[in-house]
Amino acid sequence: MSRIAARFEQLKKQGRKALIPFVTAGDPSPKQTVPIMRALVSAGADIIELGVPFSDPMADGPTIQRSSERALRHGVGLTDVLGFVSEFRNADSDTPVLLIAYAKPIEVVANQNFARRAKAAGVDGVLVVDYPPEESATLSAELRKQDIDSIFLLAPTSVEARMDEVARVASGYVYYVSLKGVTGASTLDFEEVSKRIPQIRAHVKLPIGVGFGIRDGETARAIASVSDAVVIGSRLVQEIEQSDPAEVERRVAAFLGGIRRAMDGA
Amino acid sequence: MQMYEALKGYNLPDEHGPFGPSGGISVAETLAHAADELREQYARLRNDADFLREFEYELKHYVGRPSPVYHARRLSAKVGGAQIWLKREDLNHTGAHKINNTVGQALLARHMGKRRVIAETGAGQHGVASATVAARYGMECVVYMGSEDVKRQAMNVYRMKLLGASVVPVESGSKTLKDALNEAMRDWVTNVENTFYIIGTVAGPHPYPMMVRDFNSVVGRELLEQMPQEIGRQPDAIIACVGGGSNAMGAFYPYVGQKNVRLIGVEAGGSGVDSGKHAATLCAGRPGVLHGNRTYLIQDANGQIMETHSISAGLDYPGVGPEHAWLKDSGRAEYVNVTDDEALEAFHTLTRTEGIMPALESAHAVAYAMKLARGMSTEEVLLVNLSGRGDKDMHTVATASGITL
Questions:
Q1: Count of alpha carbons within 13 angstroms of residue A121, beta-carbon side
Q2: ipTM of the modeled complex
Q3: pLDDT tens sequence across B170-185
Q4: What is the pLDDT of residues B11-62, one digit of tens each?
Q5: Active site residue B371
Q6: B299 to chain A: which residues are within 8 Å by CB?
Q7: Residue ranges of chain B whose CB lies within 8 Å of a chain A CB
Q8: Which residues on B lie below 8 Å from A106 (Cβ)?
Q9: CB atoms within 10 A of CB B226
């Protein structure tokens, strides 16, 4: 069983929902990425999503684009990102780590090499934002050989045929984008999300995480009541952006800890 | 050249949208449905007689087609060698080929019931063409433009506003065309129900590269008829500038099966490809995924998109249409580049010998034609797609000559 599946299994037994923070690797600086990951785990993260910085993150909003730009000013590339995961693994062999990337910066190496190197670094899952199922066959096959999960997105506009397509290729969990728009956009329609999750469950048997637009404990708690996992990205990245560099780890931990308490009180 | 055989009976892209290894639909799930919807609608309308009739009517009465072909006799004589002919897309309404595509896409938007159109623009030409058709069909229009370009192209910004469009300056990334495209995609994802995204070049997720090519291929179809009428045969080569590549694709596509006609795309060599300051994607880039399709891109060792440079804003783009990538890989078309200085020289030469002021984009094609013509006989014929007029470039040309207007 993969680390991701094991984690969801364990949470299910405990009657808890997964909390999944997203941060961009190398933001605000390369040396802070591993300490931030550790701080997130200590604050209650169940899985960590680590973004591979990209110059043109089309599906993201301005907050995450700026985090990419900060990381790119330090020249952070795929090799650095895999290095962060390896270093994180030295002291944490339990917390699953997922890479979220655009195709461009991971295609600097062949799919086969990427999958091998990701495995060696201790990566558990990969989501390539601009590989919809029809473009992902080659990479997914290589990842499967290495027992790395392929995570896919579903959106409010995804029709049932696309849910089936995702169900066919996805493993680990499925990431439901809770609104029409980009990451960090304003309002999440809870009614809409709670209607859509059962529809998705009819097609996809994997755990379902929900992200985009979750900004506080209250929303996280509501979303956790209808899904298996809550993903927090832009709001957390905003903490990093607004923090004094020396305070970053403390602030992300304080923020995520608040979300964790709100969810567990559900 | 072994792949050339594969181009016989050329009918790409197929339903999945690739041109060989290039093209495709590489978009986030958030955009997939919008791309699907567009693909279905366009697949239906692309062969619909009423739609095509409507499009042709607009091209004739609104755009002013067909555009003439013109024998640049004095230019040819000055250069010495092959005869240079010009396809006068500069004479279209709004002064460039861009209007062919925006008319087509606006009609499509209307058929799909979308009342709001959005567009990205670099120098402002596609923005102006989009604002123009939005005014013509009574649609709301929002144009995304890098904040750097907004400063450099104040006149076009004002033109768009006169036409009733809103211009949104984009502050992210390098604040230029590629970032405007990112921002327009974000708007599309968010407002997909009522919004049609008019992409200005033969790039983006399928069906855009095919659709923009189809709408511009009126250029090549006219040439197929005009050239035999004028010279009794087809030209020896067709030469067009390539940024994203829409004017070139429009001219090339109907000629892909005409084996004896060389197809030559001219990219922006900027300060020279070796200087690193250029936008010659097919000459110096490597394949990868950007803006929803796989194509050649100018990128660094980490796969990040690099900033490009060209004196011509319309060629200043780090990607290129996937069909050009395919035509290059298959050997059917050749891709070369000329520098800023060569393009400027061609601008002045054509202006002085023929009284035709080309857009700096088109001046790249003229520059290469002049180079090539010198080594050819006076019996041979080069056809340059003169994609736009140069009025918009007065400031750039003056500045390059050390003159302040």
A1: 24
A2: 0.91
A3: 998 888 888 999 999 9
A4: 777 666 688 888 888 999 988 888 999 999 999 999 999 999 999 999 999 9
A5: no
A6: 104
A7: 16, 24-34, 172-173, 178-179, 182, 185-186, 189-192, 288-292, 297, 299, 301-305
A8: 303
A9: 17
- Contact of A75 with chain B, judged by CB distance below 8 Å, is answered with yes
* CA distance linking residue A10 with residue A17, whole number of Å: 10
Where residue A133 falls (left for φ over 0; alpha for ψ -120 to 50; beta otherwise) is alpha
Cα–Cα distance measured from residue A255 to residue A216, given in angstroms and rounded to the nearest whole number: 9
What's the pLDDT band for A186 if we cut at 50, 70, 90? low
- Tokens at residue B91, please? 């004479």
Cα separation values, B392 from B180, B221, B376, B389, B398, Å: 20, 27, 33, 8, 12
Distance from CA of A65 to the nearest CA of B (A): 8
Helix (H, G, I), strand (E, B) or coil at A243: coil
- DSSP state at residue A235: H
Q: How far apart are CA B405 and CA B403, in angstroms?
A: 6
What phi-psi label fits residue B326: left (phi over 0), alpha (psi between -120 and 50 degrees) or beta?
alpha
CB atoms within 10 A of CB B348: 13
What amino acid is encoded at B189 in this protein? V
Distance of CA A172 to the CA centre of its chain: 12
B375-380 contact pairs (CB < 8 A, 24+): B375/B81, B376/B81, B376/B82, B376/B236, B377/B81, B377/B82, B378/B76, B378/B81, B378/B82, B378/B83, B379/B83, B380/B81, B380/B82, B380/B83, B380/B236
Instruction: Quote the tokens at residue B94.
Output: 């709004």
Label residue B9 exposed, middle or buried (CB < 10 Å: 0-12, 13-18, 19+): exposed
Q: What order of strands is seen across the sheet that includes strand A125-128?
A: A149-150, A125-128, A97-101, A48-51, A18-24, A229-232, A208-211, A174-177, A152-154
* Helix, strand, or coil (residue B145): strand
Q: So which residues of A are the catalytic ones?
A: 49, 60
Q: Is A185 on the interface with B (CB under 8 A)?
A: yes
- Chain B residues closer than 8 Å to A57 by CB: 182
Give yes or no for a contact between A150 and A144, defined as CB atoms under 8 angstroms apart.
yes
DSSP annotation string for B370-395: HHHHHTS-TT-EEEEEE-BBSGGGHH
For residues B222 and B268, is the Cβ–Cβ distance under 8 A? no
- The residues near B146 (Cβ < 8 Å, ≥ 6 apart) are B122, B169, B170, B174, B175, B176, B177, B179, B180
- pTM score: 0.94
